[in-house]
Amino acid sequence: MAKLISCKIEDRVALVTFERGSNLNAFNRQLRSEIIEMVNVLDEDPEVRVLVLTGEGGKSFSTGYDLKEAAQAEKKSVEEWSNYVRANHHFTECVWNCSKPVIAMIDGYCLAGALEFAQMCDLRYCSEDSQFGVVETRFSTGITTMIMPWIVGARCREMIYTGDLVDVEEALRLGLVNRVYPKAELHDEVMKIAKRMAQVSMQCLKWNKRSLNGVAMAQGMNAAMEQGMHACTLMNASVSPEFQKFDEIRRSEGLKAALAWREEQFRQYE
Which ranges of the chain have pLDDT less than 70? Predict the structure, then answer.
């Protein structure tokens, strides 16, 4: 089975690239597993101080969890949904639990579960072509990792309730991203930041990250995450009429038709 990620180490910085560009780097089971494994390996590598994660192709960091794969995995009981949600949360946690700084280098779409994953990274830099969105709410599925309140505060409510896409100007204003660069300059600028960061001692980087994460956990982040997973599980298991219709179209006409139907419900109010 061909690998779905690559890794290049230079000047104490590891650049990890998701190589599913033909699928907009959607997180299927294999890609998620390889990312977790790679992050864990790099966390133990004494030659690496900073990780940079990105998607190939220039169109998408990732569009989130692979909907085609998800459609093939029947889940009916609350327990089955709970196991699925917790497995996905374990994936997003791998970058949060990494003892070293992790940077999300975003070029293009960063949607749904991928947006959750990027927010679990320490820093987010993006190209001027990027877009962000909690699009999963538009077909009535839950948010696996409810990290957004800790990143942008109460302003996340509009994104979550509407599923609207957000451009880079709004993302920067909200604090969803740290900086925005022209597409052609994104890679070089992010790598320069990462390499400056990698000049700091390993001990300093690790203890500062531990301290910053500890502040969030002391404020109740773990309890909030548990509440988010519980809500996601019950939402998915309850199967709303909207999701039933979406799933019916997806199975009979394909995912593209289902997504088009979903968007049509919102277009008249744009």
Answer: 71-75
- CA–CA dist 141, 21 (Å, integer): 24
Output 6-12 pairs: Cβ under 8 A, ≥24 positions apart.
7/38, 7/42, 9/45, 9/47, 9/48, 10/191, 10/195, 11/195, 11/198, 12/47, 12/48, 12/49, 12/50, 12/195, 12/198
Q: How many CB atoms lie within 10 A of CB 2?
A: 5
pLDDT at 268: 85
> Which has the closest alpha carbon to 58: 141, 130, 10?
130
Q: Choose among 258, 104, 78: nearest CA to 179.
A: 104
* Token representation of residue 72: 């093939």
What single letter denotes the amino acid at residue 63?
Answer: T
**Cα angle vertex 75, ends 23, 40, to 5°?**
55
Model confidence, pTM: 0.95
169 DSSP assignment: H
State how far the Cα of 206 lies from the Cα of 43, in Å rounded to an integer. 10
Closest CA to 41 of 113, 122, 100, 108: 100
- Dihedral of alpha carbons 149, 222, 60, 172, sign: positive
Question: Whose CA is closest to 135, among 114, 117, 149?
Answer: 114
